[in-house]
Structure formats: structure tokens, C-alpha cells
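Review form for a predicted model. The reviewer records the input and the model, then writes brief findings.
Reviewer: anonymous (R2)
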Amino acid sequence: MGTDVSKREFTGEDRVRFRRQVSRGTEAIARMLAEGLFTDHGRPPEPLLGMEVELNLVDDDMNPAMANATVLDAIADPDYQTELGQFNIEINVSPRPFVTDDTISLEQALRTSLNRAEKRAAQTDNHLVMIGMLPTLNAEHFAHQWISANPRYDLLNEQIFDARGEAIEIDISGIPLGDGHHTDRLHTTTDSILPEAACTSLQLHLRVAPEDFAAHWNAAQSISGVQVALAGNSPFLAGAALWHESRIPVFEQATDTRPLELKNQGVRPRVWFGERWINTIFDLFEENTRYFPALLPVSTDVDPLAELDEGKTPSLDELRLHNGTVYRWNRPVYDVVDGHAHLRVENRVLPAGPTVVDTMANSAFYYGLVRGLVESDRPLWSQMSFNAAAENLQSGARAGLEAQLYWPNVGWVRPDELTLRRLLPLADDGLRSYGVSSKARSRYLSVIEGRCINRQTGSAWQRRAVLAREAAGEDRDAALHGMLGDYVTLMHEGEPVHTWPV
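Model under review:
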């Protein structure tokens, strides 16, 4: 959520005031766009790579460790912060220039920071795991008592359940581990939003000029299915073999404020891909205002339009708080730094892990491909329907490299084939346009190429490792714990996942 809010009761008057403030904030965005008041207006900003990486905590036996307060005290680094579940923490990586070999220096800095944090966590008998979904999490870990101590998380939990009016249901059918295996199904209800905490992600930020925002957001949306297919790392939850990137359906269901009747009416979900290509960032904030009631209606008395009249840059606190509770897979971000407003695209579809170099490769592929598409002669999104992009996301998340994705001028194609034939050269062009060195481009895009050639993502490796252990006689629980132990060892060794042995 990014904002601390105190626990309190909300009245109808609070909600009306908050709605009015969000609406005025949306008007302020429109006016700032029209009057060229963003700091990057008329020129692309310096390319910066910014990321947030969510991490899981385990004990020595590979069970979830409800210990984030203890671990954060031991790490003692302001870059590390709490997350929703007591078994989560997050590292915020400060933005770095995205030119020459700076990506490689960022990779080294991230590895050094994580190694230092792991060493300190281990002194408390806990360990960090960079993975999309912790395979040893079970339904018992979703009890309300395991929400982090920060009051904002409990308040968010309370407001989602107040809006929904009933327990949250998680219902996902998986895909069989191998030939002749049955299809697993996870069907459970919970009295907390903690299944959301099972979804540990890599979030990538890209600052863009206002007039370029729509093209970058549309490009990010159009490649989401390819991203999750190539980077899947979340195949297991509560003992069940689910999708290759199970974060997608789990997150959609864990924060759903709609009871069945509202779903049947077509009310939009708060975890949302969207429903159309956009022409300006205003389209997204206007949708937020139109479709989504407030979850945390905390208002100030500041009139953003009056601030604009006075020549000030408005902070738009209500608009930003509201935007933080609409969980788009590609989210618009309005931010003010040193009194200057700018805009970012926040890409949220990727899982964490498996290794630092895999994380950097996923990042480079995303940034390069978006830039390559934005600079293409004919926009990709003018050649495919928005529904096709949405279906690609679901298909890529479910079947991974076995998915069939739709791509203009290609038709139905597997993501690995599409990437090798079309997307890697485009991503290379995009990274070159940013000024990324050939050494860095080769280092990261060769990892993506290796995944496609070896047909092994983090998810594919996890599934194969569990299948092999079960074939050797282990039950599912033992196989998951043993696989996770091997995963952590290989994660620390640091070789990219497409080279991992089963």
C-alpha cells in the first residue's frame, strides 16, 4: 500500500469526502497533463531501473517462518521492510541509471545486499527465499494471526471483508505434474487476505514522459502473457500442483471484494488487467474513480486544484492511496520528488527469483521489450485486441512454456518459440536504445534464450524436482520440503535456473 494509516472506523461521510478528493485529484491530473506541468513533459527522462523484490522467510526445516519482525531487526537495513504476512519481507532497490554496464553493477549490489541480509537472518535461525510462492505454505498459515503487526495491514484486511461480507474462497484447478497424473485442485476458504501474502513478486518501475505513458503501458500489457510464461516460479500452494504462475489466480481471488452476486453483475475486480488500450494515463485514474469504491477512505483537507492555482505541485494523497488499492498488473504511479511531479509504469506480473541473475534477466527482457515495442513503426496494440492480451496472461500463467499465445502476424504460438524468433532481437534493440552495453545485453538476454532452449523455468524445475522425488517414493509434503531445500542451495550458488539439474 505504501502508506501508513491508523486503525479507525470509517463513516459514510468519510467515504463521500474521500470520493470527492479522489475525483478532484483526477481533475488535477487532467489539468497537469494539459498544461505540461510534469517535470518530464516534452522529453524522455533519464532511464532508471528501479525494483522491489518480495522475499519469503523459512526456518531450518524449510517451513514458513513467522518472523519478519525478528529478521528485520537482525538485518537492520532501511532498504528492507515488512510485507503483509509475517513470513514476508521486501527489499527496495534504489533506482540506478539504465545505461552502459550499470545493470551489472546493480546485479552485484543486489547480490551483496541479499547475502548480507541472509547472513544476519541465519543468526536468528531463519532464511530468505526468493521464490514466487513458498511451496511449503499451507492453509493453516493463512490464519488472521499471521498478518504483520503494522496496523495498515489489519485495517486493509478488515475493509476487504467488510466490502465482501463473507469469507474469501480460493478455488484453482491445476495442471497434472506428468503423464498419467491426476489434476490437483486447491479449494479453501479463509478469514484473512493472507493468501495474497503467498504471492511474492518482482515489481519493476519505469519513469516515462507523460505523452509517452500510454504507449509504455499498452506495451507492458501486451507482453504480460509472455513475461509470466518465461518467468513462472509459483507452481505449488497448500500441497497442490497448480499453475506455472499460480500467483496470478491466487492474487486475483485473495483480494476479491465481490461476493458471487456482484461478480455475476460484471462488477470489476480489484485485481484487474483492465478492459481497453489507453490513450493517456488519465484514462486509468478516471477508471479508478468511476469503478472502485474506497477501501481506506482517509482524507486530508488539501484541495489539489487550489494548490495548482497557487503554482504548487499537489501531492494527491487520496488519489495515490486509492490507486494503491486497485491492484492492476501494470499500475500507473503518480509521484512527487523534490517538488516535481512525474509518472511511472509499475509492472507487477513477475514472480520473485529464482536467482539474482534470473531476476536481472527478467527485468532486462521487460525493459528492452517495452522500449522495442514503443519504438516500433506500428504499435503492437493496434494489431491485437485487448482481450487477446488478457487471455495471453491467463494462458501463460497457467501453462507456462506449454501455453499457446496469440501474436499478431504469427497467430497461435508457444512463448519460447515466439521469444526466440521475434522478441529477443526486439528486446536487444530496446536495451541498445537505452544505452545498455553489449556485455550487459548479452549477459541477461542469453539467460532468457537459455530458458527457451532448455525449456526450463523456475516453475518447470520445481515441478520436475517434485515429480522425481515422488517417483522415488516420497509423499507430496516430503517432496515439497526436499525440493525447497535443493532450491535454496541452488539459489545461493547463483547459476540461472535453466542450468539447474533435477
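Findings: The CA atoms of residues 74 and 120 lie 6 Å apart.
Further findings: The mean pLDDT is 94.
Recommendation: see findings above.
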